[in-house]
Amino acid sequence: MEYQLDKRTIIIDTDPGQDDAIALASRIREIVMMAGCYFTRGNVTPVAEFNVYIDPHAANLVFQSGIPLTVLPLDVTHKALTTPARIEKLRKLGNRCGSMIAQILASYE
Question: SS3 of 18, please?
């Protein structure tokens, strides 16, 4: 697969496939990822969060990559607030992504 990226690119990684980010390291400005947990229990074991638990090698590559990194813990996902009006706007986008995100967010209401 050919990627057309430059140093303005920010990778937002929400799954355990962080290796893709490392493969593109020379063209990435920053990685923003969800990993770990701080004030809450893990979602796989009492102390482990899924993304790092499922692929600790890939996570280690990201942490050791030298690419500027912002890590948001699982706790943040428990604080993501939305409203019925915002969910409806997403649903009305008329595409699969909007519909899927609306469905996911509605499950937290």
Answer: coil
pLDDT tens string 54-97: 888 888 888 888 888 888 888 887 776 788 999 999 999 989 88
* Three-state SS sequence of 32-97: EEECCCCCCCCCCECCECHHHHHCHHHHHHHHHCCCCEEEECHHHHCCCCCCHHHHHHHHCCCCHH
Q: Which two tokens stand for residue 25?
A: 């390291």
Cα distance between residue 71 and residue 30, in whole Å: 11
Question: What is the pTM (predicted TM-score) of this model?
Answer: 0.57
Domain range summary for the chain, segments of one domain joined by +: 1-78, 79-109
